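Researcher: Next sequence.
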Amino acid sequence: MNRAQDLDMLAAEPEVPSGRAIGYGRGSVSSPTDVGGPEDQRAALLDAGCARVYLDTSSGRGGAARPQLDACLAALEPGDTLVVVRLDRLGRSLPQLVTLVNDLRARGVGMRALQEGLDTTTPGGRMVFEVFAALSDFLRELLVEGTRDGLAAARARGQRLGRPPALTPEQVHQARTMLARPENSVASIARMLGVSRSTLYKHVPELGGRQVSSPPPDAREA
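Model: Next structure:
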């Protein structure tokens, strides 16, 4: 999604304002944040006029599921307003937050953040999120540019990029040394180096032409 699309979405207005406010809160019961635990957030959201409040009682760190947020988003209808005590209760990063607000605006749903005093149903609130959307786009471009510059600098220093080889040059040399001894089979060499036979064939291609010695006569008779 480009920035022009972001701004178009943010400019959308609810067609039939319902006036219904739905609250969402997130936080651990055992480790409340400076916005309070879930029950503190519930009280603040009810005081703000929310008809219903959804609460996730885990921090949501590390990509943990937020089932109550999913339920809250599913319950919102055009003309509703999603209310949070603070913006970081809704998203953990600026791109995530802008994407979520974009989705809400596309559905004709507003968003209010009590502590920041933001309200996307007002011209001033929409303007703030237009700035956020532009900043998010700028940060994405910086990340791409920084990654590209970092890769170029690594190549200039002669660094190998991508996955490391399965066998080091020393191990390849060791494999060739063992290959010179007829008692060592391909399987035994691979086992000693801790790799598969296909990996060994890839790094030591001369193994492909190796002849397997016939067993001695008494071994065949046995």
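Model: DSSP finds nine helices and five strands in the chain. The longest strand covers residues 21-26.
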